[in-house]
Amino acid sequence: MIPFYIAAAALTSLVLLWLFHPYLWKLKSSRATRQQLNAAIYRDELSKLEADQKEGLIDQDTYSLALAEIRQRLHQDTVEVEKVLVLHSPKKTMIAIGLFIPLFAVLMYWWLGSAQQIAQVSNRPQMSQQDVEKMVSALSVKMEQNPGDLKGWVILARSYKALGRIGDSEKAFERAGAYIDNDPQLLADYADVAANNANGNFTGKPQALINKALKLDPNNMMALWLAGAAAFSKNDFRGAVQFWEHLVQRFPPNSEDAKIIESSIAEARDKGHLPGAAKQASSSSQSVSGIVELKADLKSKVKPDYVVMVIAKAPGVRMPVAIMQAHASELPLQFVLNDSLAMTPNALISNLKEVTLEVRISKTGQAMPEPGDLYSTTQTVKVGAKNLKVLVDQIRP
């Protein structure tokens, strides 16, 4: 266990620095990497990949390549110094939220469940980049022979991205077509590649993809970051603040991630000569926070892409005052409900003394409860309550 904790402590010191500029993106070496934002993506990818193989949606060759590509990206994110896109200003770079604090140890713990299993993975032979490149080339040939395999185009796009072949990655994403149309994470990934390939210009395709991703999932972290960066690049500092303030609510108050994002918000406020955030809106006394957990014997009934909804309502009122959405792959889920997640500007959690709190896990993400949804017992809590524990332990008949 000791090496595990040493590795975890060391790797959390790597900060991901990546800000956009409307005219100039420079490549330079940095100790920063992009692990924290990619952590959730990797975890989701692995779960979906295993599910696809079990259901016969992909063959063994495609599975092996995708698994190798995930491991390759994971390896690169933890042992290499990446080249990242940064502003020419060191100060801006230092305050960029980029892609959040890297927690490789936590990522692997989420994947495998224990430090002992992490050690087992560490002892597996590491594929060389040359091996991965050969497999990517083989998949490329295979995709040209079977262009209707849209899932394969996504795997190829992400493989190209991991190898730094951004132009090829964008082309592969484009050929994935309808497969990504309803997946906010894939849309955000596509937007990221398209903006990168356009030297930081979000006009046109990147912006449209970001907008579509946020329409599907207003809380998608990558999409929120890119939306703020796009606004910042156009000197729309007010817009950048709005997107990043929404993003910061996805993290526990006073966490390292939240502090980095808040620094970027402060930079945008300074650039736009905007007033500071209202104390009431940011005060933890005007929010409800805690953690959502899923009962152990129900975990087999939930897939990674199911939607988790944390809902706060005024007592006796059906209309929510705040809703936070996330994917089931993020469970156990830290949540913060405040005015930034309000359904309407006239019904704010900060105006209430107490709220009813409930959590629902849905296969479809529909607002109305459906048979088969998993849910928690509704509880009434004081506004300002912290460290709440909400257990999803029931199934709607």
UniProtKB/TrEMBL annotation:
GO terms for cellular component: cell envelope; plasma membrane
The keyword Protein biosynthesis is annotated on this UniProt entry: no
Record keywords, A-Z: Cytochrome c-type biogenesis, Membrane, Repeat, TPR repeat, Transmembrane, Transmembrane helix
Source domain of life: Bacteria
Transmembrane segments: 6-25, 93-112
InterPro entries found in the cross-reference section: C-type_cytochrome_biogenesis (IPR051263), Cyt_c_biogenesis_CcmI (IPR017560), Ig_CycH (IPR056412), TPR-like_helical_dom_sf (IPR011990), TPR_CcmH_CycH (IPR056413)
Subcellular location: Cell envelope
Ranges where the Cytochrome c-type biogenesis protein H Ig-like domain occurs: 292-393
Primary subcellular site in the record, as a coarse category: other
UniProt-listed GO biological process terms: cytochrome complex assembly
Cytochrome c-type biogenesis protein H TPR domain boundaries: 122-256
UniProt name for this protein: Cytochrome c-type biogenesis protein CcmH
